[in-house]
Known about the structure:
Shape: globular
Number of strands: 16
Low-confidence stretches: none
Helix content: under 10%
Strand order of the largest sheet: 5-6-7-8-11-12
Order of helices and strands: EEEEEEEEEEEEEEEE
Strand content: 35-45%
Largest sheet: 6 strands, antiparallel
Structural class: mainly beta
Radius of gyration: 18 Å
Distance between the termini: 30 Å
Amino acid sequence: VAASLQLPPGIVATALLDESQITQPVCMHVDGKGRLWVAEYRTFAKVLDDSQTDSVVVFDDAKGDGTWNRRRVFYEGKHITSIAVGFGGVFVCAMPQLLFIPDHDGDGTADGAAQTLLDGWTLADGGWTNNLFSNLTWGPDGWLYGCCGMSTHGLVGKPGDAKQKRIKISSAVWRYHPGRHQFDLVYRGGTNPFGLDFTADGTIEA
C-alpha cells in the first residue's frame, strides 16, 4: 500500500505495521519514549458476542533498528474505543467505564488491575457501537478530553455515586481531571462527535 501512495516531492511513506500485527485499530498514540500504543476495537458491532475481546497493544523498537518490531498486549477488555497515555499509566474508554491501568515504572507492562474512574455510559436503543464515548485527547489545560456519540446516553459519575450526583450526557464533549478526579460536561449538542483538537489559543474543535 505504501508503494502505491502518490506523495509530494521529498515525502516518503514507509509501512511499519500490517494486518498480521494489528487488527481493527481505532486509536493510536506515540508516547515520550517513541512507543506506539494502539487500541484494537475488534468488538465493533458485536455487542452480544462474548467470544470477542479488544486490546491495548504497545509496539516498541526492541532491536534498535528504528522500527516497531516488538508487540506486547498491555490490556484486554470489551468495547475499547480510545486510549491516552499519561500520569503513570493508560486511560481507556471501555464501555461503560473510563478505566486507568497503572504503569508506574513506564516499562509498557501493566503494574496492576484496571481501576474504574467513571461509569454510567449506556447504549441507547439499537445498541449501535460506532458512536460510543471515545477520542481521548490531552488538552492544553491538563484535562483529559473525550467525545460521546448519540447512542451513548448515560448518567456519568464515579463508581457508587448516587443519581443526583451524576451528569446526564449524550452527543457531547466532556473532560476529566486526573489529579482532582473531576468530571465535567464541556458542551452538548451535535450528533456524533468523533474527534477533537485544539487551536493555538486553546479553542476546542470537534
